[in-house]
């Protein structure tokens, strides 16, 4: 879910965790200490992932413009215009292709610029009102991007998250223990999210291995494994031979 990324991560099309660069649009990842060959050239990780976004996803601008989430309110005509602007076409050429006047294209460009200014001011206001020197206990935690069918029912504050974790999980010497599974979906998501955080993000296991790992957390590892898969925190091959954690 793109809305979970920072403004900088959205603008560049990738995000970084420790020494790994992850594509915002697929499972591709690039390690910081490696060099990657793209066609006849070699690139460090940061440059390689930019090449990947351009070659595989038609560029970051294209993906942002055509994002199909509820947060993208662009009309089809606006998407076409922004796509044309992103290619560097001249206003006169765009006007000819769209069968409108060049002045219409210039007006649309001005409108986009004004909307960008409004968005910058809104973000600054939001930052000052909700993010500076305020009690963080009622700050909403972003819904994990991989959660199946997320909606406003899953909205949860920092305080609720901490209380839910304390109620349903215990931790001794770094080992989580599930006391019981909640009934409410919002709390289930919190518990599964915390359990997922305790597992190696890049791990991959067969059925016996993941069952053994989850058995350390729960007396019913099969049910826990099913919940992790159903809620989108874990995935597996069709034959159930391999399991792994789903990344945002």
From TrEMBL:
<keyword id="KW-0805">Transcription regulation</keyword>
<dbReference type="Pfam" id="PF09860">
    <property type="entry name" value="DUF2087"/>
</dbReference>
<dbReference type="InterPro" id="IPR016032">
    <property type="entry name" value="Sig_transdc_resp-reg_C-effctor"/>
</dbReference>
<keyword id="KW-0804">Transcription</keyword>
<feature type="domain" description="DUF2087">
    <location>
        <begin position="178"/>
        <end position="244"/>
    </location>
</feature>
<dbReference type="GO" id="GO:0003677">
    <property type="term" value="F:DNA binding"/>
</dbReference>
<dbReference type="GO" id="GO:0006355">
    <property type="term" value="P:regulation of DNA-templated transcription"/>
</dbReference>
<dbReference type="InterPro" id="IPR036388">
    <property type="entry name" value="WH-like_DNA-bd_sf"/>
</dbReference>
<dbReference type="InterPro" id="IPR018656">
    <property type="entry name" value="DUF2087"/>
</dbReference>
<protein>
    <submittedName>
        <fullName>DUF2087 domain-containing protein</fullName>
    </submittedName>
</protein>
């Amino acid at each position: 879910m793109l809305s979970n990324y920072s403004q900088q991560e959205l603008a560049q099309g990738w995000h970084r965790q420790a020494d790994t660069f992850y594509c915002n649009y697929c499972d591709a990842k690039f390690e910081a200490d490696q060099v990657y060959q793209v066609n006849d050239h070699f690139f460090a990780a940061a440059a390689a992932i930019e090449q990947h976004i351009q070659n595989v996803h038609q560029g970051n601008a294209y993906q942002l413009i055509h994002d199909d989430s509820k947060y993208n309110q662009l009309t089809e005509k606006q998407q076409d215009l922004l796509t044309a602007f992103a290619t560097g076409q001249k206003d006169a050429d765009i006007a000819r292709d769209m069968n409108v006047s060049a002045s219409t294209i210039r007006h649309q460009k001005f409108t986009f610029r004004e909307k960008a200014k409004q968005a910058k001011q809104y973000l600054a206001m939001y930052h000052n009102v909700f993010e500076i020197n305020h009690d963080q206990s009622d700050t909403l935690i972003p819904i994990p991007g991989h959660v199946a069918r997320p909606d406003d029912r899953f909205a949860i504050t920092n305080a609720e998250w901490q209380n839910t974790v304390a109620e349903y999980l215990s931790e001794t010497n770094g080992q989580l223990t599930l006391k019981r599974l909640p009934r409410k979906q919002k709390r289930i998501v919190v518990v599964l999210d915390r359990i997922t955080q305790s597992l190696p993000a890049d791990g991959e296991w067969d059925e016996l291995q993941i069952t053994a790992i989850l058995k350390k957390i729960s007396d019913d590892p099969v049910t826990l494994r099913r919940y992790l898969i159903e809620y989108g925190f874990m995935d597996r091959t069709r034959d159930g031979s391999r399991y792994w954690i789903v990344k945002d």
